[in-house]
Amino acid sequence: MSISAIIAAAGSGERFGAGIPKALIQLADRTLLEHAVSSLAPVVDQIIVTAPAGFEKQISELLGDGIVVVTGGATRSASVRNGLAVATGDYVLVHDAARALASTDLATRVIAQLHNGEVAVVPALAVVDTIKVTNSDGFVVSTPDRATLVSIQTPQGFKTSALRDAHASASEATDDAALIEEAGGKVKVIRGEERAIKITTPADLNTALSHLGLGKEIRSGIGTDAHAFGAGRQMWLAGLHWPDEQGVEGHSDGDVAAHAICDALFAATGLGDLGSNFGTDRPEYAGASGTRLMQECAALVKKEGFSISNVSVQIIGNRPKIGKRRAEAIAAISSALGGVQVSVSATTTDGMGLTGEGKGIAAIATALVSKQ
Ligand code: CTP
Ligand code: MG
To answer: Could you tell me how far CA 83 lies from the centroid of its own chain?
Structure first.
């Protein structure tokens, strides 16, 4: 028995809002349409793609020889009918390019049911929400028993002659099985798959990426630093010079905010800490400014394949008063880190401890980094 596949790809992708047909949206290394074609190609004899008017040539070139491209219609049903007109198989799978990640295994299980003699086969998942029937006035009409409800996917499989008859007698439905139902035909339901979700909005792309094992890896890190005030030292804090303030001891400029941020970033990426990266065994960093350390640290984070989502630092001490220069401090840190989102806050410790007694200054920072 020969099998054709019709991949409906003629929609405009209004809800996705990319300004190009949804089937041509890129997901990882290829377009949604190419994903759909590569899943069905191993198990069917003919592939027909319905293209949006004006995109026939582009799609034909993208998919190469051996794929039949027809112009889609104004509705999905009309597009499928255009595909059916050129289908040569005894059986036909009708699939949405938007369900790009439906697997070859799912198509194989649909085909197995057709081999068993079924005329129409649909994959489905149980629904998790309670579904209600509503009227046009915005009121609930009824609440069907959830246990009887399923959410329908593609590829759907049909005896080609049965689907042709169904399309000839009824015309519009959001899936093909509905037309068979209207004609009184039996539709067999089989288990669908999570990865066969219909990609409708940009947020769905992230879900699809995670099905491909390409979701974002997100990590957080924490860092602290403290220095005692020292006579005759300049005060450097949060990448800024504070000319009227007493500075702190240390072999660097003693920028506790910058040091805490570097520690948080190293912790998030698992790259050790300030000491292991810029410590005394690395003489080239002796006396390096906080700004230079943040620049070097950001470069190491990037080299490790991470991008910085945001950094937050809190300065703990009686002086200097941060408020008036907060915007400047945020800008200095952000620019040292390559333009990332930064927040800077400050607090005192009610007269207690190193910072409260005015002996020094401390900072605590968190960082969030992510990797594709
Ligand atoms: N489709 C089609 N012909 C149409 C309309 C839709 O071939 N006239 C296809 C789409 O390309 C998609 C599938 O049917 O692969 C399911 O439709 P949907 O997810 O609604 O896609 P779009 O219509 O492109 O999206 P939107 O409704 O947001 O515009
Ligand atoms: Mg649509």
So the answer is: 32
Query: What's the whole-model pTM score?
Result: 0.70
* Ligand index nearest the alpha carbon of residue 175: 1
Predicted local confidence at residue 214, as pLDDT: 84
Rounded Cα–Cα distance for residues 193 and 287 (Å): 58
Write phi, then psi, for 289 (nearest 5 degrees).
Answer: -75, 160
Which residue's alpha carbon is at the smallest distance from atom 23 of ligand 1?
11
User: In whole angstroms, what is the distance from residue 210 CA to residue 207 CA?
Assistant: 5
Dihedral sign (CA 197, 199, 202, 205): positive
Two structure tokens written together for 99: 């369900």
- C-alpha 66 – ligand 1 centre gap (Å): 23
Residue pLDDT, tens place only, 13-71: 999 999 999 999 999 889 999 999 999 999 999 999 999 999 999 999 999 999 999 99
Position 234: which residue type? Q
Query: How much distance in Å is there from the Cα of 250 to the middle of ligand 2?
Result: 64
| Residue nearest ligand 1's atom 21 by CA | 11
Candidate from 20, 96, 99, 197 with most ligand 1 atoms within 8 A of CB, to mutate = 96
pLDDT means over runs of 10, the chain (372 residues) = 97 94 94 98 98 97 96 96 98 98 98 98 97 97 96 98 91 92 95 97 92 87 96 95 92 93 98 93 89 97 94 97 96 95 96 93 97 80
